[in-house]
Automatic annotation (TrEMBL):
Entry-linked Pfam families: BKACE
GO terms of molecular function: 3-keto-5-aminohexanoate cleavage activity; metal ion binding
PANTHER family hit by this protein: 3-KETO-5-AMINOHEXANOATE CLEAVAGE ENZYME, 3-KETO-5-AMINOHEXANOATE CLEAVAGE ENZYME-RELATED
Organism phylogeny: Bacteria, Pseudomonadati, Pseudomonadota, Betaproteobacteria, Burkholderiales
Protein name (Swiss-Prot/TrEMBL): Uncharacterized conserved protein, DUF849 family
Signal peptide: none
Keywords from the named record: Metal-binding, Transferase, Zinc
Length: 313
């Protein structure tokens, strides 16, 4: 399985649980907005749609299955994209809350953070002069004293209740080198089977910095741990590092993730009006480099997914 000849899988994360409404007027918050942005991203070329939910009243992250149910089936009915439901949610959510909708939906794919970590954007609070909602400032500033928890037992539980019981496969989010070794532990225990889909995350405070050398190191380490034939890697560059690191990943035979969850900008000083705009931008770059974009069904075959007809929505 030579990745250098494979097409590039574009994942799009349309809203996430980190940014708040005061940071961008374009961040999708309501079920209608999330559905519209996801559908547009799929039409722009995203094969995988990574989804979080928001409370429509004030935009705060929510794990409520009733909210997911207002937009996930709509997206499935309008696209052929692989629907990827977060199990990360936010640092404020318990494991039970984070799994509430995935266990109902049984999706083709879920994200899975490969370890506990400091995860913060609290310095961003200093840049906001006017907050739209009372919850936002303490939410962002409070990240300085929050830990995202995924213990070995938590990860094992997620692999069992979603992977074994529902046939869901995972976007393994690795924010640091040690997360690759955590992943290798579960592979060695026989709890995870190839092909792996490894999402290397760069530029989040608490994880790896966005240095190109770190991407090379993660790639070579994954080769040693798993063998290149057993995994596919993808890159998420936070903020202004989104497009440069995505391009570098594709040139190295990897895949990419964009979307307003990861960066609010399209260019320096220019807010992205939608996640689809970011998909179109990286697609233009990749096609200029003579790289082909994978369709959803091609992504399914590459990642060994169960198919959209085998989900619970």
């Amino acid at each position: 399985m030579s990745q250098t000849k494979d097409k590039v899988i574009i994942t799009c994360a349309v809203t996430g649980g980190v940014h708040t409404p005061s940071m961008s007027p374009y961040l999708p918050l309501t079920p209608e907005q999330i559905a519209a942005d996801a559908i547009a991203a799929s039409k722009a070329g995203a094969a995988i749609l990574h989804l979080h939910a928001r409370d429509a009243a004030d935009g705060r992250p929510t794990p409520d299955p009733r909210v997911f149910e207002q937009f996930v089936p709509r997206i499935k009915a309008s696209t052929n994209a692989v629907i990827n439901i977060t199990t990360g949610g936010s640092t404020r959510m318990s494991l039970e809350e984070r799994l509430a909708y995935p266990l109902i939906a049984g999706p083709e794919m879920c994200s899975l953070n490969m370890g506990s970590m400091n995860f913060s954007i609290h310095p961003a609070a200093r840049k906001i002069e006017h907050w739209k909602h009372e919850w936002e400032k303490p939410y962002i500033e409070g990240m300085e004293d929050m830990i995202f928890r995924n213990s070995f037992k938590d990860i094992k539980h997620i692999l069992h209740v979603l992977g074994d019981r529902h046939g869901t496969r995972f976007e393994f989010e690795c924010y640091d080198l040690g997360h690759l070794y955590n992943l290798a532990h579960f592979v060695n225990e026989g709890l995870i089977k190839a092909p792996l889909f490894i999402q290397c995350v760069f530029g989040v405070l608490g994880g790896m910095g966005p240095d190109p050398e770190n991407l090379i190191h993660m790639r070579s380490t994954a080769d040693r741990l798993f063998g290149r034939e057993n995994y596919r890697f993808s890159v998420l560059g936070a903020g202004r590092h989104q497009i440069p690191l995505s391009t570098m990943s594709a040139l190295m035979g990897g895949n990419i993730r964009v979307g307003l969850e990861d960066s609010l900008f399209l260019a320096k000083g220019e807010l992205a009006a939608s996640s689809a705009d970011q998909v179109l931008k990286i697609r233009r770059i990749l096609e200029e480099l003579s790289l082909e974009i994978a369709t959803p069904d091609e992504a399914r075959a590459m990642l060994g997914l169960k198919g959209g007809d085998a989900v619970g929505f």
